[in-house]
Amino acid sequence: MRISTVTMFEQSMTSMNRQQANLMKVSQQIASGRRVVNPSDDPQAASQAVRVAQSLALTEQYGDARVGARNALSQEESVLNSVSDSITQAKTLILQAVNGTLSDADRDSAASELRGIYETLLGQANATDGNGRYLFGGYQDDSPPFVKNGGGVDYVGDTQVRQQRIDASRLMPVSDNGEDIFQSVHASAGYLARADGGNSGSVTFTGPDVVDVDDADFGGAFTIEFADDGTDITYSVNGGAPQPYQEGEPIRFGGLSMTLEGTPADGDSIAVDKAADMDPDLFATFERALAVLENPASTDAEKAARTNTLNNTLRELDNGLDNVLTVRASVGSRLNELDVVDTVADNRTLNYEQTMSDLVDLDYVEAISEYVLRQVGLQAAQQSFMGIKGLSLFDRM
Asked: Model-level pTM greater than 0.85?
């Protein structure tokens, strides 16, 4: 069979083009540092690399979300720390003001300082994150969550909490609403007692203290009512049988104990209930304390009301402080969780990057060896073409 000159030239050119294409492919791999430059280089590895790249990008997005969550929680923790300091300062002032030896001027001075703390606390409750978003308004973070009205402070924010997805399987609260912080108490808060504002006697109370949680009536609400028939003073609990009143003697009911001092008037009463059911509100607590400190007490009934209010304020501030510290502990635990999730995400990122490297990155030793081999192949094809080009009968004539 005869082979035409054209065929020999075409085969030689095809061989040289193929060798040159292989050399260019290896050159491109070395220049880019990737084994898979085009999907056609390794379709299976290319498709797996796309999935790994998507997972890596998603991990980075969650990382950015955690940065935002950490900033929000750190700001909240800082504000709650200031709130705790404010409550502690208020307790110190109330302890001083409850001293019966202070003059009205001294109490007025304490009231002035206490009002300053009250205003500071209100400012802390309406704190922002620096971008105009209110920390404790829930999803309604574009306006102050606490506003003053004629009789106190109202919470007008959202009762929900803002959440942010920090990982594929974790949706984390990145804030707490103001109602849960400033108008709630911890579940462990005990009982409170409040004397009726209309009491005309001089009775004061200490407690209530829990003495028997197994009592059948423990956990309920109680009303202590006093009666004076002109001869004997009695008291009854929730309309029960009258009992003789003895000043300074503890009385027990529903697993609780209270000690009463002074002389109650006929019709006076004291309400006792769980702290969570007595409308807990730090701002209202401050307002009740300010009301009795700013208004001088002249009668025994007014002095008794002041003593009861201030003693009760101390218990309410304790409950409020415990609640704030509980929320702050929750914020701290979430910050710790972010650190743990960051560590897990870093390890996951390293795994993704290693997988991506195994799929598409270039082995330079192998690539350079192949590059040299392709060079030799191209040179051989060129030399072969030169030799074939000289095979002509006209050269022998």
From this structure: no
